[in-house]
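hey m, so remember when u said the tokens were messed up on ur end? i reran from scratch. heres the input so u can diff it against urs
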Amino acid sequence: MARANFVAKAQKDNPVALKGESYWWWKFRYGPKRFSKTRPERHQLTQSAFYSQLWQLEDDFERTVHEINTVEELPELIESMSADLEALMEECQESLEAMPESLQESSASGELLTERIEGLDGWINELQNIDISIEDATTEEEEEEALENIKDEILSTNPGLA
């Protein structure tokens, strides 16, 4: 994972900042320097296609969960999250199936892919088993509290992959 570096005042113009402006930069081994006006997100700081996608999904899910205002939005959110995770899981499954059979179970790569598939499947199951009903809530305050509890439960689900 690359380390992001902040420059308060650019010494000279670069692709994103003029001299005197602030910017961020990071570099992977054997790659070009990358620049941004905003702090790079963690999915931008890895060269792993899997972790890049996973971390972007996690960050997007967290932002989306915080934007939820009503219980009616929860089923669509969980369905969307599950679909995105299933797509990532299918990519891992395809990668595993593309390997020779002898390596699927005996190699470190095969074991890693299997762990990722199982972790994503577990996360999907956790999400789909969350009780999103708030029938017991009688006041608006109780509904808001129940919604916050459900949102916390969604955020506490963990793929166990990092």
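this time it looks ok to me. The CA atoms of residues 97 and 104 lie 8 Å apart. if urs says something different then somethings off w ur setup not the seq
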